[in-house]
Specification:
heterodimer, A: alpha/beta, Rossmann fold, 9-stranded mixed sheet, 6 helices, 13 strands, 27% helix, 31% strand, globular, B: 7-stranded parallel sheet
Chain lengths: 248, 309
């Protein structure tokens, strides 16, 4: 079974995004970039499926600028077998990403595509579901546990109120939530090995897909700033302050 | 213009997120219809019909819809959208699961987790864990939107809309419901609670999480939340998680206990009206957003607070 894992290069999760003074967007110049944390969980899950003998090959794909090669190398160092970089310097919206991934699926014929549930830059939480719709595949979103067996994937999902398990016929789409696994750190030998693994260089034009943006950013502003309040001495002071405010 | 609102419910009762989504849909404009997809959900449809400003309620029932399987909801909604200009779903886990599937089938780019409606094609939404607010317009003819509940007031009761049955489409049959574990609780839902007490990794164990958080929550009639670190460590169940990718909350009072205040946690609670932080590390970032900070050991401060109430 082949597993496809799309990975996105995003602002590092420890970095606080700063809005540009001209309100055109977020300033990403000289900001540390990393693999989207949910995508790391996806890579980890795919590699574990391979280690368990369930998956035979793990292919990672990224869409974005040349530097996405580094993101792909990280995934290869974690244990993925090969990469595909679809190069573009333009912003690609989730619907367009889903269309490109559909074309990649047509070429690669994976039985499982594992995606992060959400990218921590645009916080859209759309691509996996959109890809599932375009392929007319079943989806198991916000996965907490994935079991692949006998042509089916049993996916336990984190939902409001608890957990839900669904059985999906393969091929299927899974999107990962935080508690699916804890991604490994790549070891130095594996980082060295990853340098020799192949990355196929592609252009958006190779896929004949309409990626024209549908959205226009009008402006990007700072959220209202919350002022730090006061440090109170002790519990009785806290209680009396809260009572005075009518909060208790 | 007409908007189809996707109801949040558990087949027995209608979720408050529906009322908030109706408010957002009303701001968008036009007629507002509510779709109740489920099974044995007649009471939910009755409740939806009472929301003020609703024109009519559509009810579709089937086994696959009982558990809101995305494939079945897509098959139901996509043909219905011939008669609507927009689809508004609450940004609950169900809404997030189904809306992009519908959007892709309609070849529409979805707008997720909106906090404002500027006009019929322009919306406001947080990005980068709420560290930036984007105003964005769409060129798509139909709008597919998920709505962040904390940003909109609940629509009031007082309507008397007609209830209509629609056929449930079969779906692609490639998915099936297996089981569900729902945490039973008499506590208020996090997303609509007036007061939330939220615990972090400093609580140290599941046992202490319950021992210290539960009595305080009981005294206050509060919902209980947790940081990602506490959930990852197994101190609290996953649906307690407040944050960028967990629940977004905005209660009147949020008491953060032993929570350091990572960007991702702040993203989920910084719109709370009053924030209290109890943490022994005076450098903890949570104090930068707290109205009242108490630098103290939670294992003494929390029981003292519980007794003082």
């Amino acid at each position: 079974m082949k597993v496809l894992v799309p990975v996105k290069r995003v602002i590092d999760y420890n970095v606080k995004a700063r809005v540009k003074p001209d309100q055109s967007g977020v300033d990403l110049a000289n900001v540390k970039m990393s693999m989207n944390p949910f995508d790391e969980i996806s890579v980890e899950e795919a590699v574990r499926l391979k280690e368990a003998g369930t998956a035979t090959e793990v292919v990672v794909v990224s869409i974005g600028p040349q530097q996405c090669q580094e993101t792909l190398r990280t995934a290869l160092a974690m244990g993925a077998d090969r990469g595909i970089l679809i190069k573009t310097d333009d912003k690609v919206e989730p619907l367009a990403v889903a269309k490109l991934l559909k074309a990649v699926v047509a070429e690669e014929s994976p039985e499982l595509v594992i995606l992060g549930k959400q990218a921590i830059d645009d916080d859209s939480n759309q691509t996996g579901q959109m890809l599932a719709a375009l392929l007319d595949w079943p989806q198991g979103t916000f996965a907490n546990e994935v079991k692949v067996d006998g042509g089916k994937a049993n996916v336990t999902r984190e939902i409001d109120g608890g957990l839900q398990t669904v059985a999906l016929d393969l091929p299927a789409i899974v999107t990962t939530d935080l508690r699916l696994n804890e991604p490994r750190y790549a070891s130095l030998p594996n980082i060295m090995k990853a340098k020799k693994k192949p990355i196929d260089m592609k252009e958006i034009g190779d896929y004949g897909v309409d990626v024209a943006p549908r959205l226009t950013t009008v402006k990007v502003t700072e959220p209202p700033v919350r002022e730090a309040g006061e440090i109170v001495e002790d519990v009785p002071t806290l209680v009396s302050k809260l009572k005075a405010k009518g909060a208790l | 213009m007409a908007v189809l609102v996707f109801a949040d419910h558990d087949n027995a009762s209608l979720g408050d997120a529906t009322h908030k989504t109706v408010t957002a849909a009303t701001k968008f404009g036009g007629d507002v219809d509510v779709l109740v997809a489920g099974k044995g959900c007649g009471a939910v449809a009755e409740a939806a019909a009472k929301i003020s400003g609703v024109r009519k309620v559509l009810v579709a029932e089937s086994d696959a819809l009982e558990n809101a399987l995305a494939e079945a909801v897509e098959a139901l909604v996509v043909p219905l959208m011939d008669g609507y200009d927009a689809f508004f779903a609450p940004a609950t886990t169900t809404g997030k699961n189904v809306a992009p599937r519908i959007a892709a089938k309609l070849d529409v780019m979805q707008l997720s987790d909106i906090i404002g409606v500027e006009s019929a094609d322009t919306f406001v939404r947080p990005i980068y864990a709420g560290n930036a607010i984007e105003t964005v317009s769409t060129s798509d003819a139909k709008k597919i939107v998920t709505v962040r509940g904390t940003a909109f007031d609940a629509a009031e009761e007082g309507g008397s809309a007609a209830v209509e049955t629609v056929d449930a489409a079969a779906g692609n049959g490639k998915s099936a419901f297996v089981s569900q574990e729902i945490v039973q609780s008499d506590r208020p839902e996090l997303t609509s609670a007036k007061i939330i007490v939220s615990g972090g990794r400093a609580l140290g164990s599941e046992e202490d999480f319950n021992k210290y958080m539960t009595p305080l929550a009981d005294k206050l009639g509060a919902g209980i939340g947790a940081s990602r670190a506490a959930v990852d460590a197994g101190y609290a169940p996953n649906d307690y998680q407040v944050g960028q990718t967990g629940k977004i909350v905005a209660p009147e009072l949020y008491i953060a206990i032993g929570i350091s205040g990572a960007i991702q946690h702040l993203a989920g609670m910084k719109d709370s009206k009053i924030i209290v932080a109890i943490n022994k590390d005076e450098e903890a970032p949570i104090f930068q957003v707290a109205d009242y900070g108490l630098v103290a050991d939670l294992f003494t401060a929390v029981p003292e607070l519980t007794d003082a109430l």
